[in-house]
């Protein structure tokens, strides 16, 4: 059986995601942040994953959380840096230092929005990116991770 550390997944969300359900409903929908967290916790449990969740409006707190991942035995990270996606070299550096495989998720499709949102400072260092699918982006990331955990002992390797 896979040890707990191999199943530990962290979700880290950036600024303004705590306002979901009220913030730009036409872009982000009506589901609240608390509802999304509950849905992800339920899905992770059904997949045999151990999920932690953090959100901050402060770049330094996000960086500290990323830096703590290796010591906590977190095997995977699902990250939505919010607006920091487009600006934060410090979050990029923290991801590189932590060496925890990460999947970048965005509720909206940055490419369908303003041009400044088309740039991601982390796109080249994450395992993959999922965007524009709302909460399904997080769920798909968890499904992928669960598949990787289940196939870890097999010779075949998912990309």
Write a short abstract of this structure.
With 159 residues, this protein is α/β, with parallel strands linked by helices. The protein has helices spanning 4-7, 25-28, 33-46, 59-68, 89-98, 135-150, and strands at residues 8-13, 50-55, 76-80, 102-106, 128-131.
Offer a few descriptive terms.
single chain; 159 residues; alpha/beta; 5-stranded parallel β-sheet; 6 helices; 5 strands; 36% helix; globular
Order of helices and strands: HEHHEHEHEEH
End-to-end C-alpha gap: 23 Å
Shape: globular
What's the count of strands?
5
Number of helices: 6
Report the major sheet.
5 strands, parallel
- Low-confidence segments: none
Radius of gyration: 15 Å
Residue share in helix: 25-40%
Class computed from helices, strands and strand pairing: alpha/beta
Strand content: 15-25%
What secondary-structure arrangement, pairings included, does this model have?
Layout: H1 4-7, E1 8-13, H2 25-28, H3 33-46, E2 50-55, H4 59-68, E3 76-80, H5 89-98, E4 102-106, E5 128-131, H6 135-150
Parallel strand pairs: 1-2, 1-3, 3-4, 4-5
